[in-house]
Amino acid sequence: MPVSPEWLNGCFMNRVKRRVRNDATVVIDNVMYDVPMQFIRCRVEIRYLPDDMENAYILDDGVKYPIRRTNKVENGKTKRNNSYVISYSGGDPDVR
Q: Taking Cα atoms as reference points, which of 1, 20, 13 lies closest to residue 55?
């Protein structure tokens, strides 16, 4: 008898190892997914059911970290907080 329904579902999940890119993304089956930033440049194990990628997650020390499909349109509209200004005029860097 299975220990629990969650344990049984976990037995049938696909497991892949991926290295997280510098932009906090991984690629699974040619589809890009966002992962938590703490995993940048780390090798992680991702667990998922091929027909249910909405519930895919990274398992790290017994904690599940959800991943989500990258929305490229949303990322293109995100405002970034640029705290510095680059002057290409060749003059005084304090002059804007």
A: 13
Q: Which residue has the tokens 């680059």?
A: 86
52: CATH: 2.40.50
Q: What is the pLDDT of residue 67?
A: 95
pTM value? Answer: 0.71
How are strands ordered across the β-sheet holding 31-34? 25-28, 31-34, 68-69
Question: Alpha carbon of 18 to those of 12, 39, 45, 74, 86: distances in Å?
Answer: 19, 11, 7, 24, 35
H/E element holding 9? Answer: helix 5-11
Angle ∠(36,39,86) on CA atoms, nearest 5: 80
Half-sphere exposure of 64 (CA within 13 A, CB side): 9
Which segments of the chain have a pLDDT < 70? 2, 80, 82-83, 85, 90-96
Supply the range of the domain harboring residue 15: 5-73
